[in-house]
Amino acid sequence: MNEMIKIAVVGIGRWGVHLLRNFLEHPQAEVKAVVDPSSERLAEIKQQYHLDDTVLLTTEWQALQQMEDLEAVAIATPASTHYSLISDALRWGYHVLAEKPLTLNPNECQELCQLAEQQKRQLMVDHTYLFHPAVERGKAVVQAGQLGDLRYGYAARTHLGPVRQDVDTLWDLAIHDIAIFNTWLNQVPIKVEAKGKVWLQPGLSDLVWVTLTYPNDFQVYIHLCWLNSDKQRRLGIAGSRGSLIFDEMSPTSGLTLLHGEFEQRENKFIPTNQKQEVLEIEKAEPLKAVCNSFIHCILNNLPSETSSGWVGTELVQILSALTESLNQDGKCVSV
Question: pLDDT at residue 166 above 90?
Answer without folding.
Answer: no
